[in-house]
What does this fold into?
Amino acid sequence: MKAWEVVIGIETHAQLATRSKIFSGSSTAFGAAANIHANAVDIALPGVLPVLNRSAVECAIRFGLAVGASIAARSVFARKNYFYPDLPKGYQISQYELPVVVGGSLLIQVGDSEKVVALTRAHLEEDAGKSLHEGLGQHFHGRSGIDLNRAGTPLLEIVTEPDLRSAAEAVAYARALHALVRWIGICDGNMQEGSFRCDANVSVRPVGQPHFGTRREIKNLNSFRFMQQAIDYEVQWQIATLEDGGCIEQATVLFDPDSGETRAMRSKEDAHDYRYFPDPDLPPLTIDRQWVDKIRSQLPELPAAQRDRLIADYGLSAYDAKVITGSLELAAYYETAVAVAGRSNAKACANWVMGDLAARLNKENREIAESPVSAHQIGGLVARIGDGTISTNIARKVFDALWSGAGSEADEIIAREGLQQISDSGSLDTMLDELLAANAAMVAEYRAGKEKAFNALVGQAMKATRGKANPQRVSDLLRKKLD
Amino acid sequence: MIEHSLQALAQALASREISSVELTQLYLDRIARYNSQLNAYITIDADGSLAQARAADARLARGEGGPLTGIPIAHKDIFCAQGWLTTCGSKMLSNFVSPYDAAVITRFKTAAAVMLGKTNMDEFAMGSSNETSFYGPVCNPWDASCVPGGSSGGSAAAVAARLAPAATGTDTGGSIRQPAALCNLSGMKPTYGVISRYGMIAFASSLDQAGPLARSAADCAILLNAMAGFDERDSTSLDRPAEDYGRELAATTGGKPLAGLKIGLPAEFFGEGCSPVVMQLVETALGEYRKLGAETIAVSLPNMQLSVAAYYVIAPAEASSNLARFDGVRYGYRAPAYHDLTDMYCKSRAQGFGAEVKRRILIGTYVLSHGYYDAYYLQAQRIRRLIANDFARAFSQCDVIIGPTSPSTAFKLGEKAADPVQMYLSDIYTIAVNLAGLPAISIPCGFAAGLPAGLQLIGDYFSEARLLNVAHRYQQENAWHLQGPGGFT
Amino acid sequence: MSLTLEQVLRVAHLARIEVNEVEAHATLGRLNEIFTLIEEMQAIDTKGVEPMAQAQDVAQRLRADRVTESDQLAQRSAFQAIAPETEAGLYLVPKVLE
It folds into this structure.
């Protein structure tokens, strides 16, 4: 049996977070009644003309800078001509020969290894509308309904080189890209609403074969799980087909989540002659250096840079730093917590955010943005652990109280519940003397060499103080008294 | 009244010698009487026009009239006008009542001009004879057996027969200038980008430009003042300071009014291909210009003979894409019977478009299709550059280029309808101007066998005011433009 | 060069215009005459000439990212009043296959 190499390239359509459409003043809001956000330009009345949205261009520039690409000083909008009912003009305004963003790369993590994925380009284009095949409770008598609310929503199409070698790599890339576009604020990343959709070009070839195999394009993957399943199925199908002596025909396929299979699309049989030509309604887009520099100065610190800083300045492990910079929200949450707790508690903050907080969020299926415990509250809590006011065990109780809304700040809960650790030797001294007197048998066992008895005594002491005693102090004092 | 210039009409309205309602009614009556002979109008809405006239009268009564307030203007049926049937000469839009106004319509509304009706035109402006209209051909008022020219044939016939004081048109390859020449009118195509294309149904976006059709250069200046101006809804609209295009017309000049003007005569305009009678009239007009003080020099536009070929690649290419929106889904004609989506598209478009439009869509689709793009479309764009460069070189030597507008006077209805290539070649002198994006005007320069001929004046970018002045000075010394056809008294 | 009947049919399908065989033959003749005219430009050496896509050499103007529409329900009614077939605010077409 031959060994096969998988070759994958990804095209991603990221809806840009603008208020209005790319070429019209209609709202881009999701979820409105059909054709409510479809104005004269969007429904392509005779005579209407497109005018380019500045914010859409800014989003493209932000992206280009974030992936180290070059921003084209001059790029051109072209018409991609084909007939489809959700495409009102009979052409899509896109970019073809001269895109706005050229090159760039994205660093991804697959298991323990890192990989640099080269980007070919990113270009601006308009989204199409939607064809609804089953009416929302209506009967369309074997017809489709066309909703043009989405038509004209700005998209950035981001294209990779065929650099990915497995479904896992493809998913890792998609996740990293998803995090990045949200990080730099150009896309809300809402995959359910179609704000971030991927097409995967998949082919296989015998290991060592220099040229690529024939590829099939899996369209519209709108979850990472489906991407993994679809590519896994497609790869296995292609290999099985070739090993059976068949050959792969270039095709566009859809993934059916119910069957877990991919199948070729029936429509667009002549879709391959798009007759691109420069749109005569839109002069070339020119972007000067000053504009690019201004946008560069407004970019947030990028994940890779922040990760390096967390390792260097906060002493986090590479793993912790990577997890925390996995999303803009998580990173921002963490930075706020550290700002409150103090830099000396940066490591402890990471432990809390990635430990107790993450576990609890996960259990209740919540996102960091929906956390009942704010970054400020976590910071306040970690600060009290750090300065010895409470133990980690007590801190968990305080965390529970914060989670359930039983208090607004850790300090308030600690004070109200009297949870401060007892660290002063005077009061501990008296308590321990009483304890030793009452547990003479245990003291004897300890003196006979049973270390276990010592732990039991510490336990008794903690119990007597309802956990508030500083365990280290208790231990130190006990040793002093017994030894 | 029907021979009044726009300025004279404005004075008559301002002095209350006549009301806008009376003036509008006068023209509506003339249309009712004569339009059936000419077929110049597709849509008349007397009530709508008179309502606008009443509003204009109220404005005039308040002393708030402008140069066009209350004056009825006919609009080519290519301009979307809210509440008006807007057909573009096509069956495809035979039921299209526009839900919005084109920028040009809005500008005339702002000026409180009265919309007199929508004029006939070649289907989607594709034609040079007005014979491709779904609504039937238009007859030339000078000879009803002849074409009025196209594609703005209805506008030209209406103004020539005094069924409108003035009209709008559009010019993609000569569609204002050629009908102006064939109907004894003054018609101007401004610099590309001077008038907003918003709401003007696109034929070839990089070539289309609106403009006035009127009885004199002075009237054209008044219309252009109303039509021109920056529009942020059109990305190709040019953001330039507003100007008075008639500013040079009023100036009094001591001695010869055009002294120092250098007129370029391209050899390519004066070779074979032009009918000798038209050429004779052009030569005579040039003699008049010399008398006005102008100097004529020889210039060359070596690539001009390629303009028809380049145009018949670029214009159909853009049109094939521009007309893709007519698919029977959101507006316009949908075939009554079909068996699936593709069939609905194919039948709606086959039935909704006429032969010439379909022909151009097929040419355009072909030249853009895979494997042919470089040889046709890209090559045509390079030749377009060569033509624009030719003009740039010529304008470094002269101020205005003059030649014939059309190689012949009006031809017979049906004469060229069966021969597209012959029809295309009738635009040989006008097409290059659109490719370069330059302004040009056609003015009457005499008659041959009772049919008018046109003189074309081409200027450098943004030289509209000068062009209008050069035309105006000729019209002050020559009365060709004042002549009207008989039979429409 | 001259076009073939097959090319005419392919282009007509790309353009979504139904043509029957008879029409296609007639169209073929016409198109070939026109292409003979167009062929004139093939002889011209345009090496190094920058293609001219637009009449004016200007840069793209950009609009502010602002929503300009209000009363979209009335607007939709006005737009759909002239539509061939609508239901529940949707434009209806024969079933779209994927």
